[in-house]
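User: Fold this; tokens only.

Assistant: Input:
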Amino acid sequence: MRKHAKGLILFLLVPLLLALPCAASGDIIPVSTLIEQSAALDGTRITIQGEAIGEALERGESGWLNLLDATGATGVWVGQSDLARIRFYGDYKHKGDIVRITGEFHRACAEHGGDVDLHAAELQIVEQGHAVTHALSGGKLAAAAALSAVAGLVYVCYRSFSKPV
């Protein structure tokens, strides 16, 4: 009987342990879900994760952070101490810090003119951003040189065939 009990416990416990990482990753809500299920999520504590983009818009003791995930972007109201921890904001020359933010979601925030937002309670930097270099394409460089030569030739022909007034 004990042998069967141990087997049954293992049979039930192993799938639960294997499901723990799935449950942990399920806590992060995509930005698109905030829009699609805004009524159900209004006033709840949620966690989102994404790239800090643009720049922080500082407003006194707090400021706005734009957060972009694979489904969209949203504004997050963050304290100055947390904003100061973000080193890179995503733009053409940078990959922004990946941050995980937990806070209270507002479908129509009375404090911020009825906008959809998230008031951050916790900010964790998951991955540090970095500078991005873009290689110049040889084909584009050759095309630019050829088009410049054609434009120069057209200009010379125009000047030589036009009559002075």
